[in-house]
Amino acid sequence: MGQKIDVRNLSFSYGDQQVLKDISLSFNKGKFYSIIGPNGSGKSTFIKNISKLITPKAGSVLIDNQDICKMKNKELAKMMAVIPQNILIDYDFTVFDIVMMGRSPYKRSFQDFNGEDQAIVEKYMRATNTWNLKDQLITNLSGGEIQRVIAARALSQEADIILLDEITSHLDIQYQIEFLNIFRSLKEDKIIIAVLHDLNLASTFSDEIILLKRGQVEAKGSPEEVISKENIKKVYNLSVEIFENPVSQCPYVIPIV
Ligand SMILES: Nc1ncnc2c1ncn2[C@@H]1O[C@H](COP(=O)(O)OP(=O)(O)OP(=O)(O)O)[C@@H](O)[C@H]1O
What we know:
single chain; Rossmann fold; six-stranded mixed beta sheet; ATP-binding; ATP hydrolysis activity; transport; nucleotide-binding
């Protein structure tokens, strides 16, 4: 389950504003993918389409050759976990209860969580450094703490596909790196797709990068193929120098200011 995602000729519009145009891509197990591109280029809209939050106007999204629009939400939730960009939780659940919700796809109606669920939840709360927050109300946490709790919930879903929509936006530098490391360390038997704004994080962590420009794929491939002076100029209208990162040996972008 969740070995491969095929996006075929995907187009999407909000009203008469076309936001995604004829996108075809494949994502395979064992890889960390980043989606990059300027503000408004359609990155979040793409993540919402491939997670069935919104429905493509044309084209399809297939997981292991099955159209996600024909899948039950619970079945999809066993295969795919999403960490969204904007997390609004205004009900007074404890952090532990919120993370436990990640186990719901595995339960029948009114079936209780068991010791195995608790052990899974504790494992991922410790990994995301949220175990010490377990008895707090979610409404009392900071933006970065909430994002870590939502990551723990997504990990507790134990899905083969993880979508991260700008997970780093609320996180300080330590947690940005820690988080991307957690997800990268899990990639062997998962598909990880992350929307990232920081080109150098994308370059360091990704096996493949997809560069969007106005809802179309401008470039895709390895960091070396995508992170080039020409692509950055064309898509961000920004002049940059590219060096080799001395630690990771990946392309390292420095804007010319
Ligand atoms: N719910 C919505 N209704 C109408 N238009 C929307 C909606 N959500 C996004 N848009 C528009 O669709 C376009 C793409 O937005 P999207 O959020 O996918 O871009 P993005 O690349 O994720 O941007 P950012 O980097 O700023 O997060 C933008 O022009 C945006 O204004």
